[in-house]
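Re: weekly structure request thread

Next one in the queue (154 aa):
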Amino acid sequence: MSTTPEERLADLHITLPVPATPVANYVSYVQSGSLLVVSGQLPLVNGKLFATGKLGGAVSVETAVEAAYHSMINVIAQVKAATGDLSRVKRVVRLGGFIACTPEFTNHAAVMNGASDLAVKVFGDAGRHARSTVGVPSLPLDAPVEVEGMFEIG
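Done, posted below.
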């Protein structure tokens, strides 16, 4: 049975990408004491958006769940860049999800499970986290989902 986050990623056939670089005046992550905060990550796959558009419009819940999953892979890639070793993660403290959607869309929680489920698969019980998920009128590059995270690092 796999015991480290890296072994769990391998079991899931996930290879972490090179972390995305900021496109404006901010940094990808900040560590203050034992807390690591990762800036919002889009669902980039091989440098391109996995999907574009809004929920309640052209993007299905199933596609958005997968977009949240890819966003979380990018969050984890930033954590790896910050720590050098994912085993340093003592706890996924909080995830924040932004869902680009029409005003009528209300299934935000199901979409964000794409990220939350992956956090638990990779970090085990330490991956269980607090969470906020909100609908927004738009996201950068017309992405349907953006995920940010806060981690306790040892």
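The radius of gyration is 15 Å. Strands lie at 29-32, 35-41, 44-45, 48-49, 89-100, 130-136, 145-153.
Next request, please.
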